[in-house]
Every structure is written in structure tokens, then in C-alpha cells.
Amino acid sequence: MIKLGEYQELIVVKEVDFGIYLAEKKEDETRILLPANQVPENIKVGDTLEVFLYRDSKDRFIATTNKPKLKLGELAALEVLEIGKIGAFLDWGLEKDLFLPFKEMTRKVQAGDTILVSLYLDKSRRLCATMKGLYDLLELDSPYQVGDQVEGRVYEFSDNFGTFIAVDDQYSAMIPKFEDCSYLKVGDIIQARVTKIKPDGKLDLTMREKAYLQIEPDAEKILSVLEEYAGVLPFTEKASPEIIKRETGLSKKAFKRAIGHLYKERKITIIGDKIRKI
């Protein structure tokens, strides 16, 4: 059975000037073209080849050895290339762009947006993108704990529940409806703090500034990290956000705020590119 939107091992049944034809079995009438510019060297009739199957611009079955950014059953963040009369077209790494119908959008999108989508087969058995139903595809076993700073992508809004976020484009999370997210749009990347881990593993997040509550625990965390570094931290707030996050678990903003607090409390001193515990 030919499986659109998935990888499949097929047999080379015929060689032509413009590529090779593939089929599940040598005797099958359904044959799928792999264009010449993707045919591996030294391939011959009878060999098997793993390919991804989709439809070309003329709606014919076609195979590719290129790796798409998305296949059936997966989620991916894809860039919107252009808006057409009946939908948008997304870059998914193949020659033919991926179509996102207007009816499959949860909010309007614009060219240049990067949005989270999944793949489905429409009534005509064509592969299309959808922004709907992503909630059930996100994972629940995130590595994060309450208080962790995370990065996520907005993928849907709900008047009843809040703003749905895909942390790391992978894990299920939500900002509850009592927090104002009206300035956000689908596709936005946000920095947030985990406030709760539900029994099923979903995360509750907040973007609200609570410096007066966060600053003390953040400062204690830095002091703990300083202890691990024998009292001298080999970087300051000028370090990259990636280094700060990796070593302390804090965002650069939270780290800078906590460092300022410790400095005023005379618990640390900053010398050059190092922080030293007093």
C-alpha cells in the first residue's frame, strides 16, 4: 500500500532518462517516479530504496530522497512563504510547498510567520497542513520543574482556557486565561516560567513580571551555583543567554536582576568577567 506523507521502502522497477520508477512489488501497476536529480549513484533495477512519498504540482504521486521537515503524525514549526486565494503555502523542505487551507487555520497568518502545524490527508488524498488538533500531538513528559524558565511558541487561543503554548515546539503548556496575552499572536516565541505541573504532565506558565517574588530565590540559586564553582563564577551577566540558562537555569534578565540584588547586599563582587562570592 502506497503511504503518502511517510517514508517507505520501494523496489526499483524501471530506469528512464528522467529518473527511476519505484513500486511495492515488481509486478505492481502503480509506479512512482523518483526524479533523476535524486537518484543515488549505482542504483539498479531490483534494488530497494527508502523514499518519502507525496504529490507533485500536477497531483501525481512522486518520491523524494530529500528529508521533509514534517511527516504524518508529527508536529513542526514551518515558515509561511506566501498567502494565496484559498490558503497559505509553507516551506517544508520539498520542491512543492505545503498547502495550509484557510479552513485549517486557527488564526490568520502572514508571510514570514513561523507557525506550528501537523500534516493530514484531505478528501482528495492530498497532503495539507493544519493548525488544528495540535493539542493532542504534544508530549507530556517535559524535563521542566516549577520555577523553570522555558521558551515556547504560541499555537492557539481559547476564550475558555487561555493561551496554548508548545514549549520547545514539543511539550504541552498553557498560560491561563486570567493572564493578559492579547498582545500575542499565533507563532510568537515567548519566555515564561513554569508555575504548575498538572497530573497529566501538562505545564501551566506565566509571563507576568514578579521581580519582588522571584529575586530572592533567583539570588539563592546563584549563590548555590557559586558554591559549586568554589565561590567564583567564570561569567557575568554579559555572557550569552545560552550559557546563563545552562549553568543557572535562569533567563538572562532574571540572572542580571538577581546579580544586582546580591551586589547591593554585598554578597558578591564583580571583577572583570568573573563573579566572586564574598
Any descriptors?
mainly beta; 5-stranded antiparallel beta sheet; single chain; 14% helix; 18 strands; 278 residues
Describe the structure.
This protein has helices at residues 211-228, 241-248, 252-264; strands spanning 7-16, 19-23, 32-35, 48-55, 61-64, 75-83, 87-91, 98-101, 114-121, 127-130, 149-158, 162-167, 171-176, 189-197, 203-206, 232-233, 268-271, 274-277. With 278 residues, it is mainly beta. The chain has a five-stranded antiparallel beta sheet with strand order 3-2-1-4-5, with no helix packed on it. A five-stranded antiparallel beta sheet has the order 8-7-6-9-10, with no helix packed on it. Helix 1 crosses helix 3 (252-264). The termini are far apart. The mean pLDDT is 90.
Largest sheet: 5 strands, antiparallel
By secondary-structure content and strand pairing, the structural class works out as: mainly beta
Coarse shape: elongated
DSSP strand content: 35-45%
Mean pLDDT equals 90
String of helices and strands: EEEEEEEEEEEEEEEHEHHEE
Proportion of helical residues: 10-25%
The whole-angstrom Rg is: 25 Å
Pick out the low-confidence regions: none
User: Order of strands in the sheet with the most strands?
Assistant: 3-2-1-4-5
Write down how many β-strands occur, each being a DSSP E stretch of 2 or more residues.
Answer: 18
Write the layout of secondary structure elements.
Elements lengths: L6 E10 L2 E5 L8 E4 L12 E8 L5 E4 L10 E9 L3 E5 L6 E4 L12 E8 L5 E4 L18 E10 L3 E6 L3 E6 L12 E9 L5 E4 L4 H18 L3 E2 L7 H8 L3 H13 L3 E4 L2 E4 L1
Parallel strand pairs: 13-15
Antiparallel strand pairs: 1-2, 1-4, 2-3, 4-5, 6-7, 6-9, 7-8, 9-10, 11-12, 11-14, 12-13, 14-15, 16-18, 17-18
Helix pairs in contact: 1-3
